[in-house]
């Protein structure tokens, strides 16, 4: 069963560019190495560039676990974690209700 999840967080203003570079590197790793990750998108909030949202769709729990336990996740976390403000990353799981064009 597919797992749909988001992650939301905010970083310090001076860390935005560094975090964006880390996101780009991380997503390239996901594309090349995680066939069970069907969708991975990272968005930056238009009216507050310090806020980010990531959207994931995993094939199943095994794919989610492979993703979350990867060295790439650890490297990405090492960049954004020290820069977080307003609390940690908030992960939310979702059940699909309807879709158009999503994997």
Describe this structure in words.
With 103 residues, the chain is an alpha+beta fold. It has a single domain, classed as Alpha-Beta Plaits, CATH 3.30.70. The protein is built from three helices and four strands; from the N terminus they run βαββααβ. A four-stranded antiparallel β-sheet has the order 2-3-1-4, covered by helices on one side. Helix 1 runs antiparallel to helix 3. The longest helix has 18 residues. It starts with a strand and ends in a 9-residue tail after the last strand. The mean pLDDT is 95.
List the helices and strands and how they pair.
Layout: E1 3-11, H1 16-33, E2 37-44, E3 51-58, H2 61-68, H3 71-80, E4 84-94
Antiparallel strand pairs: 1-3, 1-4, 2-3
Helix pairs in contact: 1-3
């Amino acid at each position: 069963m597919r797992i749909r999840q988001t992650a939301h967080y905010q970083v310090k203003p001076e860390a935005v560019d560094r975090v964006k570079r880390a996101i780009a590197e991380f997503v390239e790793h996901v594309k090349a190495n995680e066939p069970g990750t069907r969708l991975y998108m990272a968005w930056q909030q238009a009216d507050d560039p310090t806020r980010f949202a990531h959207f994931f769709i995993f094939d199943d729990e095994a794919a989610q676990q492979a993703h979350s336990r990867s060295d790439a996740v650890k490297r990405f976390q090492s960049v954004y974690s020290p820069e977080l403000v307003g609390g940690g990353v908030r992960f939310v799981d979702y059940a699909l209700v309807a879709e158009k064009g999503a994997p």
